[in-house]
Structure formats: C-alpha cells, structure tokens
C-alpha cells in the first residue's frame, strides 16, 4: 500500500521519515542476521549525552529457542499479531553514567537509537512496530536484566505480510496513521503547544 | 572534514547514520524558517506509543528577542561554543496520555523524534548538537513549561563553522567521535551486554 495515500507532509522532507510506518501484518519469515546487524549498526551511531551510548538490545528470532520466553512477555492483544513477526527486540537503557551518576537522558538517547534502527531496517525492506503493551515487571527476570538497566520497549521486526491474515480487529487499522500539525507541538521562545 | 576518516561502520548501513555528527563550531548565520519547519516536520512522523506524539519543541533563533533567555540556561562551558549556533531548540515531552495515565515512554518516543529532526536538518546541510548541560531547574520557568511536561534536552542548530574560531579547549575535540562495537550492547535471548 502506497504510504502517500495516507500521509501528506506539510513541509518538504526526505521521504524516509514519512514512508516508515508500523504495520502489524508480518510474514513470519526468518530474518537474516545481516539485516539485524545493520539495524544495530545504525543504532550504534546515534548521538548520546557524553557519548555514553546507553542503549542495549536483546534480540530473539521467531525460530530461536529464546522466542517463547520473550514472546510470552507480550500482552494477549499483541500476541494476536506479533506471532508473525520475524524477531522481537527488547530495547533497554543504562540509567547511570560509568561514574555512577544518573543519566537523565538514558531513555531519550535510546529513543534516538531506536529511530536509527527502525529507519535502517525500513531502508533494507523490513518493518518494525514498537510494543509498549508487555509485562514490564516480568521482563527484567525473563531477559536477565541487571540492576541499573531499564527496559524501554519491545520491538517487532518483520517483512510486511497480507492484511487479511491479521485478526479481524486489526485489519481496518492496518494503514499508516496521521500526525498532529506542527502548530500543536512547536512554538517560539516559550511553551505554547497543546 | 570527511567523516569517513574518523568513522568506519562494521556493517553496511545507509551513510546518513554515520555521516551525521555533532560539531561545536558554527557560523552563527540566520537559519531560514523553512529549514526549522522541515526539521520539525521530520520529527512529526516519528513513531510513538498509542500515537500520542508526546514531543514538544520550543525554538529560539540567535537573532530573536527570546535568544538571551534561552541561551542563559546553558552551563558556562556550553556558552563558549553555543553562542555561534543559529538557533537553540528545547525538546520537551508530555509525561501522560490524554486520559491522564502515565506515559512510560514519553522521553524515549521524543528521542526518536529528535533523531528524525537531526537527520532531516543534516540532509538539508545543517548540523545539530544536543546539550545536556543546562539549568534544568530554571528551564521550566524561563520556557514557561506547564506541569506534566518534562524538559528532555536543548539542541544547538547551525551551519558548520571554522574550527579555529572555537575556544581552544574544544578545537582538538572537533571531530566525529567513535562508538563501542555491537558486542558491547547487543545480545541474543538474555542480557549479556556491558
């Protein structure tokens, strides 16, 4: 489906930012390691405070022995579509600098790394969808996450699949969604947004 | 300065991610509104939990009446170079969903929007540098930020300027910095990163 039928940017920008979107319909095919590595490589070059690079990633392919445990973290509703993802990736961030002082922007910086990963995978022909609906309390145990590392989100990665293979409740939502206009979130000098 | 002299990716990725970097040397020239709008437009299309679009931006051009107040938030050390930026942008995020429930990923999602902004500006010939060193306590007042909105970072935007116009302490650092290898932050199934 051409994204341009659903999204019209108000200002002239690189098509990459508009064309990337987050489908739920995936094919379930195996993702090559090279594709995952390219995604992490792009994330690697994101900017971060003091170049601390607080992002951490744990990946699990659908075909791997770790899949059941990671997939089991998802809320029931997300399991309905994410079982056709090719991989799940947990995105985590280190909450302190190496000297022990708090890193106020660990999640913010890791969000920039996530954007790089999403865009690189998209350029390679793969899609991603971030998942906030998962068992945050269980995630630390299941993923073996040490203290001082926060779990930010999970990401589903896959090749876009047929919409009619989705559970019915998701079929009508399977189009690139819109955004508020700039006036809703940009102002000059002082805060005047929504 | 060619970025490739300083950065060699280990995996084949789009050059955009490697070529974007964060200089301190800027020209101070006026930034056209169209360039700023393109940056915000790219940020606009970032993914976010429940499509809540928690990002907010407050911009101030060097030539504007608001500049002195925003610039005054910076730590002394950052003022030494940021006085040649063309604009400062405060990046903020709404900490709750519209129904009042907490948004766990407000900063994370806003970090993705920041990556889009940085890349779009870079593609248009402008550079950005995020600034964590500023008076966080004063920022809310100076920028008129209401409750429930977090200040994530400030960003300097500008055209790259001559290195020898920088204060001496910054001149030797004015090259694209490196990153840890993938093995330091990526693992399979369970956490095994650094």
UniProtKB/TrEMBL annotation, chains A, B:
SUPFAM superfamilies referenced in this protein's UniProt entry, alphabetically: FMN-dependent nitroreductase-like
GO molecular function, one term: oxidoreductase activity
Enzyme Commission number(s) from the entry: 1.6.99.-
Keyword Oxidoreductase: yes
Record-annotated Nitroreductase domain positions: 19-60
One Pfam family hit: Nitroreductase
Keywords, in A-Z order: Oxidoreductase, Plasmid
EC primary class: oxidoreductase
Family: Belongs to the nitroreductase family.
PANTHER family: NAD(P)H NITROREDUCTASE YDGI-RELATED (PTHR43673), NADH DEHYDROGENASE_NAD(P)H NITROREDUCTASE XCC3605-RELATED (PTHR43673:SF10)
Protein name listed in UniProt: NADH dehydrogenase/NAD(P)H nitroreductase
Species of origin: Azospirillum baldaniorum
